[in-house]
Design goal:
By secondary structure, this protein is mainly alpha-helical. Helices cover 69% and strands 3% of the residues. A hairpin with a 6-residue loop joins strand 1 and strand 2. The protein is globular, with a radius of gyration of 22 Å. Belongs to the amino acid/polyamine transporter 2 family. Amino acid/auxin permease (AAAP) (TC 2.A.18.1) subfamily.
Length: 463
C-alpha cells in the first residue's frame, strides 16, 4: 500500500467534530496558564507604560502569526488542499528541506518542558492551599513550609489515568472544563485585586517605568528583571506549538482556516482581557512590591477559602493543559512505533475494557506502558529540579522565536510568494528581528535565574 493511500485511510478514520467553541477552548486552555497571576510582577518591573505596551504588542503579534498559520493548514489551496495535521508536517510541506526537523526539535522540546513545568506548578498550587489554611489557623508569621513532592506524585497519578484518553480529538470536554477554570481563577485574582484597591487607606507606590533604580533595585537587577518581564509577557501568549493540532480537530465545513481565525481572535482577545486585568489591577493593588504570583505567593491571605478555590481552579486547569501538550508527544511516538513494527501485536492489538458510566475503552498495552512511563518521567524531573520554572523559561525562550514568529512568517512568505524588499516583506522581516531580540532577552534572563537557583539547589528537597 502506498504511503499516500495509507495516509488517506488514516485521515478518513478521524472523526473531526470541532467547532469555533471547542477550538477557542483549546486555545484558552493552552494560552491562559497559572502564569497569568504573575503578570502583576511583570508590570511592576516595566511600569504602567511598558507593561501596557508589552501586553498589547505581543497580543497583536500572536494574533497575526496565528492567522498566518491558520491559512497553512491546507496547502497549496487553503480550502481544498491537503491537510497539514501537525506543525511539523505543515513546515515540511511548505518549507521543506531540514527546517521541519528544527521545527520538530523546538516544538517537542517545548511540549516536554511545559508538561514538566505544569507538574511543578500544579504542586505549588496544592501547597498554597495547605499554606493558606495554615496561615489562617496559626497566623501570617507561622512556619507553614510544606514539601511539593507528595503533591507532584498526586498530580502525576491523575495524569497516568487521563493520559489513556485516545487522542487530541477526544479532549474537547477536558479543554472546555480547563478553560472555564482559567477564567475562574483569573476572575478571582481580579476581584481580590479590586477589593485590595478599595481598602480604606490603601496606598501603594507605582510609576510609569516600574521599579526605581537606586531606590528599590540596583541597575543590574533592573536589567535582569526587565528582560524576564518582557519575556514572560511574550511567552504568555504562546500556543503556536499546538495550533495545527487544534485546527485538525475542526469540521471541514465551514473552511477550517476561517473557523480557526475566529477561534484565535476569541481566544487571544479573551486571554488579553484577563492578562491586562490581572496584570494592571494587580499592579494597582500591590504596586512595585507585587509578588511573583498573588495566589500562590500570598499577596492575599484572606478570605482564605476564596484563595483555596482559586488555587483549586489552577490545579484543574493544569490537569487539562498537561493533556493538551502531552497528546502530540504521545501521538508522535506511537505513530513512529506503528510504522516501525506494523505487525507487532504488542504495538497494535487492542483489548476492549468496559468502564461503568463511560463506555468501552480499547486498551493497547504499548500505549498504557509508554504513556504511563512518560508521566512518571515528567514527575521525577519536576521533583529533581525544584527550580525548573527557570529551565522551562529557558526552553520557552528558545522555542518562542521559531514557533510563534519565524516559521509562521516564513511559511506565509513562501505561500504567497511575496516579492523581496516590498513594504510588507520588510515589515515582516523587522518583526522577526524584534522578536528574536525578545527571545534572546528571555534566554539571558532565564540562564541568570538558573544560576541563582543552583546556589541553593537540593535535589528532592523542594518546599
Amino acid at each position: 500500500m502506498s504511503p499516500e493511500r495509507s495516509h488517506c485511510i488514516e485521515d478518513s478514520d478521524i472523526k473531526r467534530t470541532g467547532t469555533w467553541l471547542t477550538a477557542s477552548a483549546h486555545i484558552v486552555t493552552t494560552a491562559i496558564g497559572s502564569g497569568v497571576l504573575s503578570l502583576a510582577w511583570a508590570v511592576a518591573q516595566l511600569g504602567w507604560i511598558g507593561g501596557t505596551a508589552a501586553l498589547i504588542i505581543f497580543s497583536l503579534i500572536t494574533l497575526l502569526t496565528s492567522f498566518l498559520m491558520a491559512d497553512c493548514y491546507r496547502y497549496p489551496d487553503m480550502v481544498h488542499g491537503n491537510r497539514n495535521s501537525t506543525y511539523m508536517k505543515m513546515v515540511k510541506t511548505i518549507l521543506g528541506g531540514v527546517q521541519y526537523k528544527y521545527c520538530g526539535l523546538a516544538q517537542y522540546t517545548n511540549l516536554v518542558g511545559c508538561t514538566i513545568g505544569y507538574t511543578l506548578t500544579a504542586a505549588i498550587s496544592m501547597v498554597a492551599m495547605k499554606k493558606s489554611d495554615c496561615f489562617h489557623k496559626f497566623g501570617h508569621q507561622a512556619d507553614c513550609n510544606i514539601s511539593n513532592n507528595q503533591f507532584m506524585v498526586i498530580f502525576g497519578v491523575s495524569q497516568i489515568f487521563l493520559s489513556q484518553i485516545p487522542n487530541f480529538h477526544d479532549l474537547s470536554w477536558l479543554s472546555i472544563i480547563a478553560a472555564i477554570m482559567s477564567f475562574g481563577y483569573s476572575f478571582i485574582g481580579i476581584v481580590l485585586s479590586i477589593a485590595k484597591i478599595a481598602e480604606k487607606g490603601h496606598h501603594v507606590k507605582t510609576s510609569l517605568t516600574g521599579l526605581v533604580v537606586g531606590v528599590e533595585v540596583t541597575r543590574t537587577e533592573k536589567v535582569w528583571n526587565t528582560f524576564q518581564a518582557i519575556a514572560n509577557i511574550a511567552f504568555a501568549y504562546t500556543f503556536s506549538n499546538v495550533i495545527a493540532e487544534i485546527e485538525d480537530t475542526l469540521k471541514p465545513s465551514p473552511p477550517e482556516n476561517q473557523v480557526m481565525k475566529t477561534a484565535s481572535l476569541i481566544g487571544i482577545a479573551s486571554s488579553t482581557i484577563f492578562y491586562a486585568s490581572c496584570g494592571l489591577l494587580g499592579y494597582a493593588a500591590f504596586g512595585n512590591n507585587a509578588p511573583g504570583n498573588f495566589l500562590t505567593g500570598f499577596g492575599f491571605y484572606e478570605p482564605f477559602w476564596l484563595i483555596d478555590i482559586g488555587n483549586l481552579f489552577i490545579i484543574i486547569h493544569l490537569v487539562g493543559a498537561y493533556q493538551v501538550f502531552a497528546q502530540p508527544i504521545f501521538s508522535l511516538v506511537e505513530s513512529w512505533a506503528n510504522r516501525r513494527w506494523p505487525e507487532n501485536k504488542f504495538m497494535t492489538k487492542e483489548y476492549p475494557v468496559r468502564i461503568p458510566l463511560v463506555g468501552t475503552w480499547r486498551m493497547n498495552m504499548f500505549k498504557v506502558i509508554w504513556r504511563s512511563t512518560y508521566v512518571v518521567f515528567t514527575t521525577l524531573v519536576a521533583m529533581l529540579l525544584p527550580f525548573f520554572n527557570n529551565i522551562v523559561g529557558l526552553i520557552g525562550a528558545l522555542c518562542f522565536f521559531p514557533l510563534t514568529v519565524y516559521f509562521p512568517i516564513e511559511m506565509y512568505l513562501t505561500r504567497v510568494k511575496l516579492p523581496k524588499y516590498s513594504l510588507k516583506w520588510i515589515v515582516m522581516r523587522l518583526l522577526v528581528g524584534l522578536c528574536f531580540i525578545v527571545a534572546l532577552m528571555g534566554v539571558i534572563a532565564s540562564i541568570q535565574g538558573i544560576i541563582l537557583g543552583l546556589k541553593t539547589y537540593r535535589p528532592f528537597k523542594s518546599t
